[in-house]
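=== Structure Prediction Worksheet ===
Name of assembly: unnamed complex
Input type: mixed (protein and possibly other molecules)
Chain count: two
Listed entries:
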Amino acid sequence: MVKDQEFLEKKASYCLDLAKKLGATDVSVNVGSSISETVNFRNKKLDESNRSDNLGIDITTYIGKKKSSISSSNLLQDNLNILIEKCIETTKNTPEDEFNALPDRDLLAKEIKELNLYDDNHIENDDKIKYLSRLEASASIDKKIVNTESSFTEDKSNFILANSDGFCKGFKTSSFVASSVAVAKDDKSMERDYEYTLKCHLNDIKSPEELGKAAAEHTIRKLSPKKIGSEKIAIIFDKRIAKGILGTFASAISSSAISRGTSFLKDMIDQKIFSGSINIFDKPDIVKGLGSQSFDSEGVKTETLKLVEQGTLKHYLIDTYNGKKLNLKSNGRCGGTSNLYFDNGKISYKDLLNSNSKCLYVTETIGHGSNIITGDYSVGATGFLVENGEFKYPINEITIAGNFKDMFKNITLADDLEFEYSTNSPTMMIEGMVVAGK
Amino acid sequence: MSNFFEKSDLSRSDAESIISETLQKCDDGELYLENSKSESILLDDNKIKNSSYSSDLGFGFRAVSGEVVAYSHSNEISKNSLKQSANNLKSTLKSAKGAYNHSIPKSNKKYYQSINPIEQKTLNEKVEILNQVNNYLRSKNDKIKQVTANFSGEQKSIEIIRSGGESLTDVRPLVRFNVSVMLEKNGRKETGVYGIGGRQSYENYLKEDNWKNVCDEALRIASVNLESKPAPAGEMKVVLGPGWPAILIHEAVGHGLEGDFNRKKTSAFHNLMGQKVASEGVTIVDDGTLDNRRGSLTIDDEGTPTEKTVLIENGILKNFMQDRLNARLMKTRSTGSGRRENFRHIVLPRMRNTMMLSGKQTQDEMIKSVDKGIFAVSFGGGQVDITSGKFVFNCTEAYEIINGKIGSPIKGATLIGDGPSILKEVSMVGNDMMLDPGIGTCGKAGQGVPVGVAQPSILINKMTVGGTKL
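=== Predicted Assembly ===
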């Protein structure tokens, strides 16, 4: 069982009290407990079981404007005593920073919203095994599939965040995730692809058959890929890739990148950075939402933000430290976004495919080619050539490149938004990017 | 050395009997105990932004039967906790009928000292150097808009207890020093990053000459990038500089030669043993035995002494990198390549210091032979799709080559290639092999481990450059 609220609160208040006693003027503590159980299958047989029992504590102590932090997985009192002493000692020797502070008291969350993020159901490993057997049976029906791997993880977590201004709150969350990876082979090539399902509640995950079938289909259609020439071409990003572009946008508007001057979106508040049809929301109170939360990692309450309104940037993602530096109030985004999404576009998926006589449909990108300082983007890509709305053949060993400043202005979205992840996008088309191939 | 049983209700002999009882019908397995201490001190935006310290303690208990691995880990080193883990392992491996393999090679060689780098210098000394770094750089160039510098240090003590009570231990120091600068000129911003590190004390890095070198190099790279033009798009010849660009070798072929992917036949190399996979003159080794290097290990995380493993010799595929599980199933021996990020993770076959050895040509000859191409001096991260063999990496310093001469610097572009065929496209191997400065971390299955790379300059006949200029 994960540790209960009482155990975590006791540890947190012990640390708060001791740190205060040793000279800290302010303290914040996060204590967490999680238990995770995974079963892995490979080629229809049990491959691995893994049980993970985790405890952890993070303590930040302030002496005036001096700050230092420690973390540990050893919660025995002896060890906590040594660590807190060390933390206070380090704090004394760390130079002052005028912006160091706990969050403003009036911004702290007063309540925990009931968002249904915890499912007490437990699925025994034997039942995970039954699910994975059905999954792999579906994944390996086609003879072209030469290898299957799948995995089922159940995770239960609990935490308490407490600070010396009296904040002390936490909540339980659970997640159930099943994934299927298939390898397919023909004379010319070997390819891999996947599908997965991740939910807070056991009963909401996809059926094993649906998952296995999808992974196999995704993989088989990638066989015998071609390489295309280098050209300017409209690119359609599958939802699972499109959400990554939204993620890059979120990093570029984080208050730390803005205050350090290391973002291409610095000084762009109230400027038009997307085309006029684009709206972006960050909504923390979606019931069963994978990114849902009542407060951020500093205890500041989180409310829905319309980050981009009709193409215009309205908010940065602000935490306490960088907020003070920028002379802005925290909007509860220490640790990043909650449920981040593009609002639906106006045209259907089918019309999007048909909007150019020829386009590249990207299903996977590799590499770390997003530069949020310059906005430059260049990554390896895998996908399909689409002509007149029809998928013609798979493509690989190409790169796609552009600059986010231009890319953002050329986004067209389909109307097929679903909430499958914590960051979600409808299918996305960007015109004017460069493909490098032959 | 840590005494893991000192403050626990679990005695060493209790632990030994639980281990032996749990593993008696298994083929392999062990109790892995770990105690690590780490620190990080970060200067950013003219201030010490962060000083943090972390201590991590726990165990991972593994049982292996046939191809099946059962694993359970916990932070609590106690009798109850170990018994609960033992029950978990037994319930997964109900029908195990193996015989435990007690044999494990031994060696007395050590490749680094059992020191704790964190304790060797005071916080004030480290803070002082970071402030000097900041002042030095900002006084050197008025285009500097941002300086970030950090020290990180770690000491990890591990003990492996096998069935029958055999114990293997290691104490691993690791330090790193990193500097990043951002320049701005006419509204354009570019960065340069450089760092050094290894399994040793901070002593070397705190010398003035050394940290100044790191600063100068970061500033030089940023200055080059400030003048860069859009990169070309399409297939062309690529000259790679010596040292760190060997992450190409790491991504393109290294991962594909790890035992697990080949046992599972998901690697593009799985059926190529003994065959020609690279041009003549290409020899690649994976070496865990270099003194004080970031990727070196005295023993791996299963207790096997590390070694220098020849992967490709003069173009011919000779060996995969193996841990005990994959070695047993592939009927070969462990190459001391079994690694894990920490006690929360299972062992996987991983790289250590992956090196392409020197050939005979000079870098000059390579550049002169190229009509149109690029010269890549440094890279950021890379990634590979093991199954299709396609890999990428991002240039952080590169130049165009026109008619045998190095031209303008070009913007960071992604290069993409095909792992199994790229080494056959290597047409010249330089005489200037160099080790990287000690900064690599390799990610696999969600686990990061420190690694090293090395190579001489090489000429690749054909790669796709992912620029924007058609």
